[in-house]
Amino acid sequence: MRQEDYPKVRKTLVIVLILNLFVAILKGVFGFLANSLSMMADSMHSFFDSTSNIIGLFGIWIASKPADSDHPYGHRKFETFATIGIALLLIITSLSILGDIWDRIIDPVIPDISHFTILVMVASMLINIMVSRYEHALGVRLGSSILRADAMHTRSDIFASLSVLLGFAAVSMGYPLFDPLIALFIAILIARTAYHIISDSCNVLCDQKVLPEHAVLKVVNSIQGIKGCHKIRTRGSENQIYVDLHMLVAKDMSVDEAHRLTELVEERLRKEINGIADVVVHIEPSED
After folding, report:
1. Mean pLDDT of all residues in the chain?
2. Domain final residue, candidates 205, 227, 252
3. 109 and 18 in one domain?
4. Distance between CA 64 and CA 72 in Å, rounded?
């Protein structure tokens, strides 16, 4: 993600934070009044959505700092750490809901569902749909893992709200047991979202390969004067890719010419493969 894009991410997270707090309070109040465990579980999910926004804002604040002598590659991985923080909050939410389900099984309470309660759930679901679509689109465009993770978080809220509505229908038909069962489904959904976020974040932190070797080879080997290319390594994220490779050139090639080819390789890779931030080339003499 470019340095100038961080303010856009911050602005988006602040807007989403306000919306999440509004939705969480709305669902929490009416879920409590209706004695609906699934609705209160959904409210807790929305509340942790807003907490994750705060973590995201903190992560973006550090990640947006420019490179310095102690961090020559910049602070961008703090965004990834913040993304993992969001996932950990999701796991805590899931465990908390499981505890509430156990309490409800021991001491069952039949939810009191009203038309206004249903209206609140539908309204919150529509808000989450708009927020999720906007966050995901902006996250992809700017290359922000925070926004994409938060969009996944919000998207799970949509399915949770839909599940609550289905639970309301079951309760109205005389099946109150469906309320804690729907809450269980929400807990599993939240945990699954957390798993995917942590998995993607660990790939970045562990420097998993970002590009297939053939994509780099195709570009490098198309440049006249280069005899071959090997030991290709890539790391980073899809919009912040670091590439290093070994390039074979003629034994009698001058230093100036080899340097020119190195610059050309970097220029062509940046032009033909989106997201490349840096290229390091090691020159080797060809045996041919």
Report:
1. 83
2. 205
3. yes
4. 14
